[in-house]
Amino acid sequence: MAETHNAGYFSWEKKAAGDDVFLAEKSMFPTLAAAAAQPARDNDPAAALASVRRELGEHGGVNMSIEPSATFTVMEPETMRRMFTGELGPDRDFFIYSRHFNPTVLNLSRQLAALEGTEAAYCTASGMAAISSVLLQLCSSGGHVVASATLYGGTHALLTHFLPRTCNITTTFVDITDHEAVKNAIVQGRTKVLFFESISNPTLTVADIPELSKLAHDKGITVVVDNTFSPMVLSPARLGADVVVHSISKFISGGADVIAGAVCGAARLVNSMMDLHQGALMLLGPTMNAKVAFELSERIPHLGLRMKEHCRRAMEYAIRMKELGLRVVYPGLEDHPQHELLNSMANKGYGFGGLLCVDMESEERANRLMHHLQNSSQFGLIAVSLGYYETLMSCSGSSTSSELNAKEKALAGISPGLVRMSIGYTGTLEQKWSQFGKAISRMRDSSTLFNKN
């Protein structure tokens, strides 16, 4: 018999052992489910964020106070026992230790749950902490993952090298656009997770989230989607995904000054990850600092505005670069293989993403282009990462995808000269485009720069 409790914006269930595959025998913590996670009108993430539980400062300040404490006191010794049995928890403002839950981090988690339209979320110290914790929670020794062949290099290395060596968890990589290949890669009884990026790093391939989710669910497999490239633009959980992970360090932060991540999903999953005996988040301890959580919570309200401008400029630059004869990859262009797919899945009004790629075919030409864009015209900065207010550029094959060997890069469709650009929004659009043109004019070997087809 399930016992249901409600307090403020929270609701949760305490169930007997065996009632749910994700829930531990004694759920020490309530879920993070909040009114903010309810479906917003027209599925607009901005509307969901606007309805999130509002925290005010200790003395009535419009901004919440930061709770930097590592540990928390109780008035009576008996209270601590009740907290450790799960009878009392964060839903009633009872906190034990900030590796478990911290009030400031909890507030940010509510915002992430609202953003992605999930019941719950848990914010971590990095995006890789979020990804690795989820995979370790969902897969046991001998488990199997089916994953896109085109992934961020760190994720690919985790799946290719680290998890097989340390946990006996193996992965089959497939072309995520080939649904038959996905089906054929699933091993009945062993495959636990289908993992892919909503828009792939760095090739900008768009995954058919509804179809892939249906395919996986028919086989009893959990769908985990990395939505780092497209917050606000896509809502994978509303499209069928079970778990959404983020590197908050990127667009959500926007400042290139913090490292952070998030796991967004069902309350039962988050509860299981916080279990005292079996929880990956609880036991591995990828804890977010409360001061970082406060800073991030202040940036999320204008994420929608920032994403719209990132996407607007990326679209405009992609059109103009293509007109110059450059080999441009951008999902907003009609010649992109998944343009119509993305258009059908995207939240209206947010565009097609803030990243574009220019394929220079060779690393030497890619490096020369980036040199002029940074050092001759100040169009952008040669740096990894993305989502910054300045344009950031990198040659993916020799940087963020360098963990892949030559064969793996070929399978992923990563050209040696692929320049990934995260388009910023500083200055005016015409000013920055003029800087781009100046760099192009400095390129000496124009015959190899442009697409003559």
UniProtKB/TrEMBL annotation:
Pfam families, A to Z: Cys_Met_Meta_PP
Cofactor(s) this protein cannot do without: pyridoxal 5'-phosphate
Domain of life, per lineage: Eukaryota
Keywords: Pyridoxal phosphate
Electron transport as UniProt keyword: no
Protein family according to the UniProt entry: Belongs to the trans-sulfuration enzymes family.
Cited PANTHER family: CYSTATHIONINE GAMMA-LYASE, TRANS-SULFURATION ENZYME FAMILY MEMBER
Annotated protein name in UniProt: Methionine gamma-lyase
